[in-house]
Design goal:
25 strands; 5-stranded antiparallel sheet; homodimer; 8-stranded mixed sheet
């Protein structure tokens, strides 16, 4: 532990720490940069194959984060400490945790977590995967496996560790505000930097001249170009950095439209790429001189010798643990799902008999346990088919060269070939006796492939093995019957040691068996089984909630997420200043859930408590410290929300509208302002079919005008999920009527499966208008979703549209809505894309109905006839479902089917000649049909149709019994076919019964 | 001593060192700055009364110093380590020296020197006085007492210490080139920074776009203005820094003319001032919060109690040593001179009898020794005059209130008043017996004033005493008869301890007497007496020169300077690569003398040896290290000269001409190109009077055209003293004829008193033309020198002009030259300024003649008549001097004087009427005058005149004896006056004999 935790000593201690670990200590850059990554010591040096380990402070400038010195920890300038390790030393997380100890953080007294957070810079063509490191809920470090920079794939990748020094100093010094951080014994951070925070905030938000900065941007661009033309990498890069900073200033001044942003990013990205390429070329021309200098941060472990596993029993228990750095929430699920599928299949392939298989995992480990696995494969006899017997032997019965070649290939003497009769003739065969191999041996070969075959949405490389995985694998444990299976993967060799919770000692624990393994993990509080973990968390959280005086109700989403974020869950109660309750509840909830994965607590009356439940990783030691840290975090975040909202409240909601013009909806479809105006128009059109009139119509039109305005508010820009919510809040604060405000919020509904639809017609109208406009427009410009690509969330739009119509039970034809929208979009009415769009929407309706449990055939039957009216179709599906479940359905459907089957291949409309009616059964059918037709109003109701049809069944059956439809008399035949066709045709617009099972 | 001297460890060690001493550790600035001073942690924080101690690294960008990575230690980016101590801790030099030890420099193994070097930034309105710190001749640190910043007087002043880290690392690691500095164990400085040096050099010198940078400058200015209008100190300051860097880039691209430079500096200075004022206001508004936090670097010593000196003897020896930080060369001289004058006067004032006085000193101490000073003042009786006796007593003889008041005032009873007769009447007097006070007591009061009364050209304040002195005084030793005189000055109290050579131990040495003091210093090798030191150095240097095979010839200037730079001189021989001898010798000499104060060595044939003699401070220990360090320095400097010359040689000399247009001579008088063209024209005009024709005239005209071209060459811009020298060198390299080249060099001659005049007529013509143009022009625009102000060096121009004419013995009237020049300058011919200018030149001629030892009256007599022709006047002075020294001069002068005296008040020209000549003496005089006139050609030669005149003396004397000049007959009188006036008038144009002594 260091002597002092003063701010400057933290830095000196980090310098010493990383210098001792072989890092070159570098200096902050002489140009304003948003992060240490932009220092050429990172941005350029991560390129190319040469090793590079470096550490430095970087005062980082983020105009957007300026808060006039009023936020406890958000600053226009914050001090980063940046470390680059290239190549990966094999244990960067551990070294990082040691560095925390070196500056005075005892990780055992805190909740330290690696929470998925991936990084990308569109301006620099750079990205990486990694984590935020949380110290008691506070993000103190960004830890990234840097994969690409300047558009170049990084090989080897670099480990990038970026400490946020203020956020480390505050808990370390137990102060609540950046101003109070002790820089030295006698000076605080506020002493030396508060003035800068105040002044630069004012400059960035209010003073910086837009035109002049635009001019600066152009000049820097031009200088970058001319430097680059001469091959001057560093001078060109300096200019790019200046562009980037100028861009940030312009952005903070609100002077960058969406399109402009893309153009500017594009240019910067292009320059970054060219600079990066030039840098690599330069190093290449020098022969990559540092490649010669090896400077490993840590010696590579020598690969273990192969000790063949020799199980002495018939069956053994098998245990595989893949130790990883913290897996992202969804990647953990994905890995478990794949292992659950693939392990049994693999064992079958390997001919290993086995007992029960369990696949479990935590963020740091994927575990497969197989009970009683056969210690060897079964022996087997293989009969391999060779050439046809006729070609295998010559007329003299001597083997031909074909036979000889075959025998040689199979490794048996030609005399041993046997002729066998096969299905398709007579062949020579080789009969091979295969002895089973030991399970250890086959597994040793198979396991790398098993692990390597797990696929993730995004994967990284991290070392020279160039293996890809969700996150680096750091240890492998593989035991069969207590014997290690020393397979290799990604530069690791499996052994018999697991690891406990991070920072618990000893770091590695040898285990001899599955049972022992389970005990070890249990002793550490680790719950391996995700389901059990989920339940444990739920129980703990509910208990805390009850104690705090709230209702024990949890968000499932957060519960799922938290389950995958901890190994050893421990819930704790946190509080915040009740003053913040004056902010919209949705804001508080969003902040707590989205940023911090806290469970929020409501009282019985539905109002929020000024509390939250967090779940740490670890035990209940130092829980006050953990809770306190988390409380500081949420305070800063609420403060920030407060800042945004205060800024936004300086304007009326309507005043935001003009800025919507700077927000592109889609290039060909114009800005959000354009869209907003189209919605308004559409709402007006929809009024009549929706029965919207008078005051309610006024409300709808006003709300339509304002519905997108909050998208340019600072709070929504910061947290998009608050769209609508903020719109409502700002509307009320701007003096809009409550109904208008509600409609603004509700027009986004339903936002997800299970969400409520708009509760007023006004909101409904806007909701429909918004969705019709999006769908018709996007399909119209050729942007239909394809495969898994759905960047404009059209699925959600369509589902919402359908759901709302169903919920309102509103018979509205989506064709009509699409045509209305098309008019506003100046599309041709007959545009084929509209048909595609309609079918897409009907497809979503189908999904909804199927998800509700309706039979596929029932849904298909109804949608075929009336899919374009979701509400009616839904009613019809319900009705038809009742019918198909009736006992007499086996009489009804065949009767109808008889009518259809005989006529459905006839592509002509048959004609009727009443005079030719001769047979009574004919006459009866005719009468019956006329009665049916008369009683049946085509409402699309299966009930209506089937009730009527059911009465006709005896007549129909009699008709078929008595009458030969395909009479030789053409007039008779024509009459009979006509009767059947008409009867069948009565179901048109209701359902296509031919799609039903049993038809 | 530290574990590692790797570059990054040097930095870490400095951080630790200064942090331990209470400095706040700060970070480099996020903007390109030329030095750590520009970081707001210095520039702003030194303002106002609050304490501030800070230390930080500053990667400093100086485009001008870019060398494509080819110079061993000159870099476009170098790393500074900056320390600010405010207020002065009392021992900053000592703490600094400790810091060197902390990074591995054992000061005892090197020659460490504080060499005067003052700092100012015209762009920032900042200046300070201090030193370069030399480590074996290499400047490794700038040490400054910062006096003003942003136009604000700094109160308290700050100590600013700026380390040049590369220059420290190189000797410390014993490497010869920046590229080889070990940054870590495995990476060199070149590894990480060479690419940057190469690329940025190219960018700054060749690529940076001038127009775009000019535009940037304007934008930054405008942003600074608008930030400042809103009172945003730091954002405004950021923009000023950007202006400054952009200015530097433009300057390096050669795109800033002299006038433009002044304008730009002016603007930046103005902004800096306003930012500084705003900063102070801001702190003031906060109530200068840090004033409350005292953080003294060192506790102030408690003032000593006053132990009254009690000498037991009649006389005692007195010793005063004023310990200072290193005094500048001229300040040491000035202080000694003043002390030599003032000490005797002071002792007389104090009525202290004394013996011999010695005043001596070294850069670190001023010493006064007085032998046998009376241990007490003599007693004395004072008679003090009171009111007149008449007013002192009333008619009854009783004392009046006036008498009583007087008696009371003098502290004697009224009865003791005595009435005494004075010169102006009878007065009451008080007779006061004054007992002499001990010398120690009076000196204690007088010494502070003695020291405080020493004046320097530039002084500084350094601590809260606000005393000013050349450099801080750091200790005081005062002994009278072995007793300490504990007087106080500038926060110090005198005691009985001296200090030896820096870094010798013990730091303080108590001495009890003058003898002991002398012994102590002698033991340390310190030579107190400047004259003795000078001789010792001369002897040592000559010996080294001889050993090296050179002629033992020293530059007096350097010798004088070196004498004042060391306390304990030790000469050593240094060498450099003989390759450098291909550079012009003047360049090598200038570099060695100006930058390093080395003695250069010439062989008997006049050529330079590749060696030099340096003089270190200290003994002969580790002399190889010292010599080696010095050799590295000179290598880097020669390398640099080589760089400049190579760059310059890429163009012909003539090609430099257009750029002269960017160099302003004087705003109203145009650019140097304008001036150059005027010189060319004037040379053409001067050809005839100078007898310049044919080939020689061609040479003169060609040389005139090119004579100023080298002023824009890089070498001359770097080292102005090489003007002309480089012009010659570049001319020869451009294929100019040798005569032309010589004339280019020589037109600057004579450059100083005693310098040779041009040796060819061509050079002479240019030399004269240049000076006539300057003088006429500057006087013409009202810029005559006044008092000590002579910014355009017009004194030197006039002296050179006069000297050249004298040396060439060329009868040329300066009036003619001035008129010629005036024509070229489009001045009115009758411009009065020309008269002033002529008189100014004649004034210089007078000085020259007086300095040559001619009698003042003789010079005055001649100059009154023919000052405008210096050559003739000089001849005349010589001749006249011979005449006045003749034995018969007592006859000659009176005879002439008689003629003059009687006529000189007559403002009329008398007329002559030959018919009225009546008296023979009259007739004789007439005849004699006619003869004299006939024999005398008015060449201005006193010889000529006096030889002739001498013959007339008997006639003149006879005339006066016989004739009454002021006859009553007006015609007679007119005739006689005429004769005398004419005779006297013959001397016109030769000398005004009335100015001679004895006239």
């Amino acid at each position: 532990m260091p002597e002092s935790t003063n701010f400057q000593d933290i830095i000196i201690n980090l310098q010493n720490f990383w210098a001792r670990r072989g890092c070159l200590i570098w200096q902050p850059y002489y140009s304003q940069v948003g992060a240490g990554t932009y220092n050429p010591a990172t941005f350029l040096r991560v390129l190319g194959p040469e090793p590079w380990n470096v550490a430095y402070v970087e005062p980082s400038i983020r105009p957007d984060d300026a808060r006039y010195g009023e936020n406890p920890n958000r600053l226009q300038q914050h001090y980063q400490y940046q470390v680059i390790l290239k190549p990966d030393p094999g244990n960067p997380q551990e070294v990082y945790l040691q560095s925390l100890e070196a500056i005075g953080i005892d990780p055992r007294r805190h909740d330290i977590r690696f929470v998925e957070d991936n990084w990308q810079s569109p301006a620099l063509g750079a990205w990486g995967l990694g984590w935020e490191v949380w110290l008691d809920g506070q993000e103190i470090t960004q830890f990234t496996y840097f994969q690409q920079s300047g558009g170049q794939v990084l090989d080897p990748p670099s480990v990038e560790i970026t400490y946020g020094l203020e956020r480390i100093a505050m808990p370390l010094q137990r102060v609540r505000n950046f101003r109070d951080i002790r820089w030295t014994e006698s000076r605080t951070y506020g002493d030396v930097n508060l003035q800068g925070e105040q002044e630069h905030s004012k400059y960035y938000f209010e003073i910086a001249d837009i035109e002049r900065n635009q001019e600066l941007y152009k000049i820097y661009m031009a200088e970058a170009e001319s430097a680059l033309e001469k091959g001057l990498v560093l001078p060109a890069y300096d200019q790019i950095l200046k562009c980037s900073q100028t861009f940030n200033v312009l952005d903070t001044r609100g002077a960058v439209g969406v399109t402009e942003r893309q153009v500017m990013f594009g240019k910067m990205r292009d320059l970054s790429r060219r600079v990066s390429e030039a840098y690599i070329e330069e190093r290449k021309a020098l022969g990559f001189p540092w490649l010669a200098q090896t400077e490993p941060l840590k010696a590579e472990a020598a690969p273990k010798a192969f000790p063949a596993a020799k199980p002495s029993q018939k069956t053994v228990d098998f245990l595989l643990e893949i130790g990883t750095e913290e897996l992202p929430v969804f990647d953990l699920d994905a890995a478990l799902t794949q292992l659950r599928e693939r392990v049994p299949a693999l064992l079958d392939d390997l001919r290993l008999e086995h007992g029960n298989i369990s696949v479990m995992g935590t963020p740091r480990r994927l575990v497969v346990m197989v009970e009683k696995i056969a210690s060897r494969q079964e022996d087997r006899t293989l009969v391999v088919k060779g050439p046809p017997a006729a070609r295998a032997f010559d007329p003299q019965g001597k083997p031909t060269p074909a036979a000889e070649g075959f025998a040689r290939g199979k490794g048996i003497p030609v005399e041993k070939l046997e002729v066998r009769e096969m299905e398709d003739g007579s062949y020579v065969t080789a009969v091979i006796q295969e002895n089973g191999i030991s399970a250890a041996e086959v597994l040793q070969k198979a396991l790398p492939e098993l692990i390597g075959g797990i696929k993730f949405e995004k994967s990284i490389r991290w070392n020279s093995s160039n293996v890809v995985f969700s996150r680096p694998t750091r240890w492998l444990l593989a035991l069969a019957g207590g014997q290690v299976i020393p397979f290799e993967f990604a530069g690791l060799t499996a052994d018999g040691a697991t690891r406990g919770l991070r920072l618990n000692t000893p770091a590695q624990i040898e285990v001899g068996s599955t049972i022992q393994y389970r005990k070890v993990l249990e002793a550490q509080g680790i719950i391996l089984d995700p389901q059990a973990r989920r339940e444990a968390i739920e129980k703990q959280v509910k208990e805390v909630m009850r104690k705090a005086g709230g209702e024990p109700v949890l968000s499932d989403t957060i519960l799922d997420e938290v389950t995958n974020l901890v190994e050893a869950p421990q819930a704790f109660l946190g509080k915040f200043n009740p003053d913040f309750l004056r902010l919209p509840a949705e804001v508080l909830i969003s902040v707590m859930e989205k940023h911090q994965r806290y469970f929020t607590i409501r009282k019985a009356d539905g109002s929020l408590l000024p509390n939250f439940v967090g779940v740490r990783n670890g035990d209940d030691q130092f829980l006050e410290t953990v809770a306190d840290g988390n409380e500081q975090v949420i305070t800063a975040r609420f403060n920030d929300a407060d800042f945004f909202i205060k800024q936004d409240l300086q304007h009326k909601l309507e005043d935001f509208l003009p800025r919507l013009a700077t927000l592109t909806f889609q290039v060909k479809l114009g800005s959000m302002l354009d869209k907003s105006r189209r919605i308004e128009r559409l709402v007006n059109e929809l009024a009549e079919p929706l029965g919207l009139e008078g005051k309610e119509k006024e409300t709808a039109l006003r709300a339509a005008m304002l519905c997108k305005a909050d998208l340019v508010s600072k709070m929504v820009v910061e947290m998009t999920s608050l769209q609508g919510t903020m719109g409502r809040f700002y509307a009320l604060n701007s003096g809009e009527e409550e109904a208008v405000a509600d409609a603004i919020r509700d027009h986004y509904r339903p936002r997800f499966a299970g969400d409520a639809s708009p509760s007023t017609k006004a909101a409904l109208a806007i909701s429909l208008a918004d969705r019709f406009d999006s769908l018709a427009g996007l399909f119209g410009v050729g942007l239909a979703p394809s495969g898994t690509k759905d960047p404009y969330a059209q699925r959600r739009a369509a589902i919402g549209l359908v759901q709302a119509l169903i919920d309102w039970d509103l018979d509205f034809d989506i064709n009509r809505g699409l045509f209305m929208a098309a008019t506003g979009l100046a599309m041709l009415a007959g545009d084929e894309s509209l048909i595609g769009c309609r079918d897409f929407i009907i497809g979503r309706l189908q999904s909804i109905l199927l998800e509700q449990g309706y039979r596929y055939d029932v849904v298909a039957a109804v949608l075929a006839e009336q899919g374009s009216s979701p509400a009616r179709a839904t009613r019809a599906v319900k009705e038809l479902t009742e019918w198909v479940n009736r006992k007499d359905w086996q009489q009804i459907l065949p009767a109808y089917a008889r009518c259809v089957r005989i006529t459905r291949d006839q592509n002509v409309d048959h004609t009727f000649n009443p005079k030719a009616l001769e047979v009574p059964a004919e006459q009866d059918l005719y009468n019956s049909f006329e009665a049916l037709k008369a009683s049946f109003t085509t409402t699309g109701s299966p009930n209506n149709f089937l009730s009527a049809f059911k009465e006709q069944i005896p007549v129909i059956n009699n008709f078929f019994d008595k009458v030969m439809v395909m009479s030789d008399d053409p007039i008779q035949r024509e009459n009979r076919l006509y009767l059947l066709q008409q009867t069948a045709g009565l179901a048109a617009g209701t359902a296509d019964f031919s799609k039903l099972e049993g038809f």
